[in-house]
Amino acid sequence: MMAGERVAGLILLGALAVACATPKITNVERTPRGPNAYELNIYRSFVANGREPTFDEKRYFEDQLSERVFKYLREHPEIQNDQRYSDFRFWRQVTPGSSKGEVEALLEDPDERTIDPALMAALASQQWTAISSKAKEAWVYPLGWVLYFDDKAVVEIVRRRGKWDKGDDD
Fold it and tell me: How far apart are CA 115 and CA 86, in angstroms?
């Protein structure tokens, strides 16, 4: 009976090792709205400091963000007549149609930029067939956000989510 228990234990241990070594499955979802500046600020604070931003850090970030947004609006008054105006000015969120300048004003520089179709296809996974005819460039941001651009603006937004991620932004 002892030998049977050892074999069962080894099999269980082997199965556990394989399960832990298996890479995390990722779901890639197309979304109608992209990341907002506040969620990326909180994430970046956790990465840099291991904690949420303090009240003063939040105020400083909001002041800097407001300055960038209002500077962009002064330089591009035509956006005031666009449907995405409130998403940009009030919600501080990227949406399809957002220009590269709007995205940079809200989210700052991406972690990665690419024009390589193979890499863009890998980032979009099963969504690539719907995106490939429009996308010419992809910008990658934290928390799994990938923004696809044509020559002028965001044409598609995808989010790469882990299998167990909570759908808290829906």
Answer: 30
Q: Is residue 121 part of a domain?
A: yes
Within 10 Å of residue 139's Cβ, how many Cβ atoms?
21
Instruction: Encode pLDDT of 74-103 as tens digits.
Output: 999 999 999 999 999 999 999 999 999 999
Is residue 15, in this structure, part of any structural domain at all?
Answer: no
Integer angstrom CA distances of residue 76 from 62, 90, 99: 21, 16, 11
Tally of structural domains, the chain: 1
Closest C-alpha among 105, 111, 108, 164 to residue 138: 111
Q: Is residue 138 part of a domain?
A: yes
Distance from C-alpha of 117 to C-alpha of 124, rounded to nearest angstrom: 10
